[in-house]
Amino acid sequence: xxxxxxxxxxxxxxxxxxRAPQAIGPSPESLERQVSEALTVARASARIxxxxxxxxxxxxxxxxxxTAELTELADRVEAALGHLEAxxxxxxxxxxxxxxxxxxxxxxxxxxDRIVQRLRDLERSPAVxxxxxxxxxxx
Length: 139
Known about the structure:
- The structure is a single chain.
- 73% of the residues lie in helices and 0% in strands.
- By secondary structure, the protein is mostly helical.
């Protein structure tokens, strides 16, 4: 007699489907579908992350290039402002010199006008000229 025969078959232990307890959690098909969706999302996320990395690198390169251009432009503007300031100082010095020259010429004109007026006054006044001839020895 075989010991396994005494125990009966395991089919005796199975419950009919209508009396079987409900499975806890999702079905295997549902789990497979969820895992498949998760893998699809993960792969898409990895592609998006890689694209974002490339975009960020390009943006960084563009930003570096823009920074270099802006630095160069700022240097050129600073140099131009330096030239403008130097020209402004030179123009200011020339204006001050022109003003001094104008004052000098005005004083010269005023003095020349006074001399001319004095000479005209002398022309109009009768000149009394007394000439004294030294006495010389008689002949």
